[in-house]
Structure prediction request, 627 residues.
Amino acid sequence: MEKHRDPIQGEFFTTESIDSVADSVVRESVQNSLDAKASDSSEPIEVRFTIGNVPSTQVAMFLEGLWPHVAACDKVAGALEKDSMVRFLAVEDFFTTGLRGDPAEMYDVDEADPPNEFYFFVRAEGRSSKSGADRGNWGVGKYTYPMVSQVNAFFALTCRGPECGPGGQGPLAIGQAVLKNHSVAGTHYQPDGWLASITRIGDDDFPLPFGNGSGGTPEQLAEAFLLTREEEPGLSVVVPFIDEELTAEEIVESVVRNYGIAIAWGLLSVVVFDETRDATHIDETELDAVVEGLPRAERDQFHADLELARWGEACPDEDRVDLGRLEGRPSWGAEGLMDEEVGRSIREGLAAGDKVCVRVPVHVEEKSGELDEWSYFDVLFAPTDDSKAPPAFYREGLRISEVGSSKISGIRAIVVIGDPPLARMLGDAEGPAHVNWKPSTRRFKDKYADGKRWIGFVKQAPHEILRLARSVQEDEDRDLAKDFFSTAEPPPPPPPPPPPPDPEDPQGEEDDQGGEEPEPDPPESEESVRVDDIAGGFSVRVDSSLSRGSMLHISVAYDVRRGSALKKWRSWDFKLEDLEVDINGGRLIRRSGNEMRVRVDDPVTFKCHVCGFDPNRDLYVKAEVGS
Prediction:
């Protein structure tokens, strides 16, 4: 039987989108386990990883019949049949529900029915029973497992609690191989193969799990692959023939890097067994000791993050600083977000070397009307010796590792999203790898009122909160927090002399090595126009003496070492029509490619913020007053 498919195409999960194979395995498996926490359990979720090696004869019965198909797709993988040992990964979770639902359900389930986790994990592709508030919700991340298997196969064993639905409590076991379309001995086969109890219904063969207390395959699978599960509810996944790159040490580092905050908060504990069965325990009490084993470049920063996150979790309401609710569209330039008292509290706290927690309200509204309520996120600040540290973003304990945000000199910042409405909205904006928030994702686009603006608003929060705290500073407070909020800036260094002409390139042709005369530095805006860097973009302001109705012509490109930045702009760099443009005191007349025209209606209140650029690239911005 061919599985239900809803392909995700370009958004499909790939291990290249994150740091390592270990990261892909850890992020996917742990987030699924955290989402499956049993409602009647007060214990933290426990996830056990095993990197093991067993004789091939011990597991041959589970791979029998698969080898001709593997060899038809990949001759190198097919040769693994002759290996005497099988190196494998096992992932088991405890204090979870297991895969609930009717395992005999073969077709798309009705949304009105109770969630069928077995169906979505085993049969559906590109779909999920979860909402965006769950850490993993794409229904494709599970394909991490066959992706790290050299034979593209995995086995699943589940025990279920008493509220499991039809099919019994198990244990149940089933196996899958996700290959390519291929032929064996002249017969064509679909990509999906099954280790299952095949039941013939009409003209179709239906794969059902083995087990349900009858003995046989589930117990044999557990024994052959050294599983630790007995009858506790939860899910065990076994991946045979893993690559040498995936090691217990890599898994330990990945757990700490991606879920250290969840462990520090007591939501999760992890055990990692290596090939000698030595165990590394990572829980609330052992976490700091395990962090000591991280590479030095990460260790000190992560200790500081853990300290800040623990403090933020325990911060009482009376010690928290609350920003105001926004009226209208989200914008850090809007009135009423921060008054002088709040700004002073932030400045004085950081100047005294204290930690500061700022709560930011967010209005979450689905266009369908199903959700319309205020939510929030917290930004935790602490002074640091690190000259420039990028903020870290966490949604319900999962690190969203590729969110771009400007580094902040002398201050460490952590953004914590834990309130369900906002967690759901941002979860919908994550791709299958859950490493960034993008408004173009299928489940987010056109779903939320001002959704794209709220994403930019959250990403800019650490930088913008500190900017606002500085901007509302009263005259008598000018000397406070000077290390963090100084308004004086050193004069820019003189521009370097232009390079000498290249005798071999007399025409000044553009190329990646330069050759054409460099773009001049953007003019020190006529006194009437000012361009500043902000998180992920730039802002433009004008002098109050500028005439109402004046037009601004703005051109932007990623800066280059040599040659003309504006001439070297290409559409694949960015398009302004795809980015976040927020204007107060004026209106957007036109934007196309890397150019835009803006009308200034009120020079006193005029602000133009443009965000969404690559945070790792410098911008060249030219802003002029025109007609």
The first strand starts at residue 45 and ends at 55. The radius of gyration is 28 Å.
